[in-house]
Amino acid sequence: MVRIRTQKIGAQLGSLGEFIAGQRRMAQLSLRQLAEQTGISNPYLSQIERGLRKPSAEVLQQLSKALRVSAESLYVRAGTLDPDDHPATSVEMAVLADMAITARQKRVLIDVYTSFVNEEREGRAQRQAAK
């Protein structure tokens, strides 16, 4: 069994596990149902949620698909990605952290927000090119 040795990594994984457990509950999935959807064993998933295991990028990818959350947000929470290299906006982080809406609603909100940002970026580029 892999034990987390540093408090910083342990805290990160604990917060990752708490986040995954929260997303699972919001999606109204039991631990067993999420395990079945992802192909991850029930005990291993339980250990991830309790912060006892550090999941691989592949496992995080499977979890992100099943929970319909950004894989990048899970990678950052797990310490796999540097948040400075892959910054999520405060809007995206706020939406992902909100426990009052479902995973599907979060994805839709982030998609709409991203489309607005991209539209504004394209408009700005066109205005710059016209000068």
List the helices and strands and how they pair.
Layout: H1 7-26, H2 31-38, H3 42-49, H4 57-67, H5 71-78, H6 90-97, H7 103-130
Helix pairs in contact: 6-7
Which topology does CATH recognise?
A: 434 Repressor (Amino-terminal Domain)
Gyration radius from CA atoms, angstroms: 17 Å
Largest sheet: none
Order of H and E elements: HHHHHHH
In whole angstroms, the N-to-C terminal distance is: 62 Å
Q: Characteristics of this structure?
A:
single chain, 131 residues, mainly alpha, 434 Repressor (Amino-terminal Domain), 7 helices, 69% helix, 0% strand, disordered N terminus
Question: Describe it for me?
Answer:
There is one protein chain. The chain is built from seven helices and no strands. It is mainly alpha-helical and 131 residues long. The chain has one domain: lambda repressor-like DNA-binding domains (434 Repressor (Amino-terminal Domain)), CATH 1.10.260.40. The N and C termini lie far apart (62 Å). 20% of the residues are buried.
Quick rundown:
By secondary structure, the chain is mostly helical.
